[in-house]
Design a protein that fits this description.
By secondary structure, the protein is mostly helical. It contains four helices and no strands. The chain has two domains: 34 residues; 72 residues, no CATH class.
Length: 108
């Protein structure tokens, strides 16, 4: 299927807009030091919020249906415990993945 001129223009504009958004953060990097402390605290929480937004649906809606008691929520609880005890991201991910495999095998 051939793309029309309009489609190519839309693709080009979307690409330029995406580049501009990403470049703006690099251009504004020097001004981040001037932000008030509460704003900097909020910016520090963005990676955790993004990770939670990715993990939450994978744990509680693996097949599109809400699952409260099942292998993945149980594995999530195990991973949460490891995270709270060790504060190690790598260990939390490894233990959580292992727990998913074990609970899926045991509970199906």
């Amino acid at each position: 299927m051939a793309l029309t001129t309009t489609a190519w223009v839309v693709i080009g504009v979307a690409g330029v807009a995406t580049f501009a958004i990403r470049a703006s953060f690099l251009l504004m990097a020097g001004k981040l030091a001037e932000l008030p402390e509460p704003a900097l605290e909020l910016l520090r929480l963005i990676p955790a919020a993004a990770l939670a937004a990715l993990i939450g649906p994978a744990i509680f809606r693996p097949d599109g249906e809400l699952v409260i008691l099942g292998p993945r929520p149980l594995a999530g609880l195990v991973a949460l415990g490891v995270a709270l005890l060790t504060r190690s991201v790598l260990l939390t991910i490894a233990v959580g993945l292992g727990a998913v495999v074990v609970f899926e095998a045991l509970l199906g």
